[in-house]
């Protein structure tokens, strides 16, 4: 009998106000529905999904499916790091062995990328997993963070700095996903 897969939580960071874009990117629709819903769909392979919201929280919450858990970040104006800290702290109080961290402003990153990351989960000790998607060798998102790394990532997540330094210092595995998407982080409408 095969042991059940360890629980993995999808963590979607969707709290930003999108100052450069002109509106919260969670609510942007570039033709296939709001980005927050596209990102939730990308995380469908996870055991549960937590969405961190902030700017226009009521409008974002209203369109989210009832199957996701919502966490409001009252400090979202201080930068993405506060959403990462809030999300990983909340997940740390659950039995999740790892988290797949996804940003809402990656319109060409879909479920296939997340599934590829999940396929690289360390089955021997999933809490030790540390990997991230790469696009033509360039590190990008989403990121798979095992539970044993939560505290270190939380400590370094300040302002708009997320886990980049921690991932580099701890040798995160790069999982090539350039055949599945471009991994572009879209900050302004002219980048669409």
From TrEMBL:
The MobA-like NTP transferase domain, residue ranges: 10-170
Protein known as: Nicotine blue oxidoreductase
Native source species: Nakamurella panacisegetis
GO molecular function: nucleotidyltransferase activity
InterPro entries named in the record: MobA-like_NTP_Trfase (IPR025877), Nucleotide-diphossugar_trans (IPR029044)
Domain of life: Bacteria
């Amino acid at each position: 009998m095969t042991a059940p897969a360890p629980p993995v939580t999808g963590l979607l960071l969707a709290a930003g106000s999108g100052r450069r874009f002109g509106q919260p990117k969670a609510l942007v629709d570039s033709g296939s529905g709001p980005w927050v819903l596209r990102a939730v769909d990308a995380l469908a392979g996870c055991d549960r999904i937590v969405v961190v919201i902030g700017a226009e929280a009521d409008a974002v919450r209203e369109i989210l499916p009832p199957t996701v858990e919502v966490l409001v970040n009252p400090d979202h104006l201080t930068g993405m790091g506060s959403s990462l800290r809030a999300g990983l702290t909340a997940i740390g109080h659950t039995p999740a062995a790892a988290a797949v961290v996804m940003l809402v402003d990656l319109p060409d990153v879909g479920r296939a990328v997340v599934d590829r990351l999940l396929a690289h989960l360390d089955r021997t000790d999933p809490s030790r997993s540390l990997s991230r998607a790469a696009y033509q060798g360039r590190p990008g998102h989403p990121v798979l963070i095992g539970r044993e790394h939560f505290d270190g990532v939380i400590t370094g997540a300040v302002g708009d700095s997320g886990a980049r330094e921690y991932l580099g210092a701890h040798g995160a595995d790069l999982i090539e996903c350039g055949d599945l998407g471009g991994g572009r982080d879209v900050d302004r409408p002219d980048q669409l």
